[in-house]
Amino acid sequence: MTTVTTPVTTVTSPVLRTAYQKSVAEYWNNEKDPVNLRLGDVDGLYHHHYGLGDYDPSVLDGDEATRDARIVEELHRLESAQADVLLDHLGPVAPGQRLLDAGCGRGGSSIMANARFGCRVDGVSISQAQVDFANEQARKRGVDDRVRYHFRNMLDTGLPTGEFQGIWNNESTMYVDLDELFAEHARQLAFGGRYVVITGCSNDVTGGRSKAVSRIDEHYTCNIHPRSAYFKAMAANGLVPMTVLDLTPTAIPYWELRARSSLATGVEDPFLTAYREGSFHYLLIAADRI
């Protein structure tokens, strides 16, 4: 008797599913903004987020020929300080546990997390160029056995269920639907695991986004969510906020210094206007998976 074996076909969802996702991926695949690359060149940690804390005013003094280089180094210090604030809120992480950097950019925060906790870190991005760049940085640092980046959609990563002690989004939630995102994070987090997000969000109280917030959206091809949307989507997906910090006052100095650098892109004024008028907030939310 002949036995016919039917081959099993695994259907893999495409990483880029919509015209909008394709446009975002194209934007970041082609992005070579010096404000990201020159800052990362300072010490090889390439971030895609902004900075926190007061800047050292002495960088504006002294030799004009080296002034801009001093500003670049100080801006990078502030953005790495921001990543440290996020990592501070992941709680205790053991070397045998696993973390996920959702919307990892060029991967700087993942490398910082591995250096701090000694654990395995996965990063995901819909930009193949970012993934390739980040994996090369991990290889250069000799941590590519513990830090790996994947060309995947953070709304459906294909990564294991309940495997991660911590997950974070650092200024990447404005590109996705929050209910879909938090459902996927809740699936991947271990019971009692921690989720942390740092994001800009519009102020519900003002009754709509300001012109400055709309200009930020246009600049980055994103869709900034109102503050309330984060808490509604978390509540719907078993994520309970433990810490909520308004980082807006400590975000302003970064933008003031960046506006005085050669790296200014024109979006500095909308950020400063939106923060100062109160139509835009820079929040950290840390939530536990229940």
Number of domains: 1
Number of strands: 7
The succession of helices and strands, N to C, reads: HHHEHEHEEHEHHEHHE
> Average pLDDT, to the nearest integer?
94
Query: Number of helical runs?
Result: 10
Structural description of this entry:
With 290 residues, this protein is of the alpha/beta class. 40% of the residues lie in helices and 19% in strands. The chain is built from ten helices and seven strands. It has a seven-stranded mixed β-sheet, sandwiched between helices. Strand 2 (120-125), helix 5 and strand 3 (147-151) form a beta-alpha-beta unit. Helix 6 (178-188) packs across helix 8 (227-236), helix 7 runs antiparallel to helix 10 and helix 9 packs antiparallel against helix 10. The protein is globular. The termini are far apart. Mean pLDDT is 94; it is low at 1-11.
